[in-house]
Amino acid sequence: MSGEGDPDIRVVVGDITDFNGDAVVNPANSFMIMGGGVAGAIKRIGGGQIEAEARKCAPLPVGKAVVTGAGKLRCRAVIHSPTVAAPGGRATPKGVYEATRGALEEARRAHLRSIAFPLMGAGVGGLTPETSLSWMVKAIREFGEGLEIYIYVLDPAVASEVRKALKRYQGGKAEAEEG
8-178 — its CATH code? Predict the structure, then answer.
């Protein structure tokens, strides 16, 4: 980001399940049921053992997070951080902020430095990409110092809009990568 010590945020066009860093974030529900959206993709590619391990910690409130193994994914771990209580629930900006904060706090506890996030609460959660990003950036600024943050977006047009919004929030700089 723009200031010294601020987290490094990069927007990546690609599939979050291809991330080859420390951890991917699953925008979970409190019951850790990995049905659709990013959660479903993580389970489909990484294997059902990820969900089985996460379900042992359920229910987990919004704002808390848990780390599990990554199964067959390329990363080392999955951080499950509920954005909603119930499967298929609608996300709120506050929930996105709390879930992002919880994921970052858990990443620190687990000594995970490079973290891939989807747009928390967007997609299945119902928030717009810009609303999701604005609340994520607030939490990342407050709790992400020293971490490498990657925001994965599948659609290049959405990624372009996310980069523009990120520049506004950061005061001018948004890095781009292809996944």
Answer: 3.40.220.10
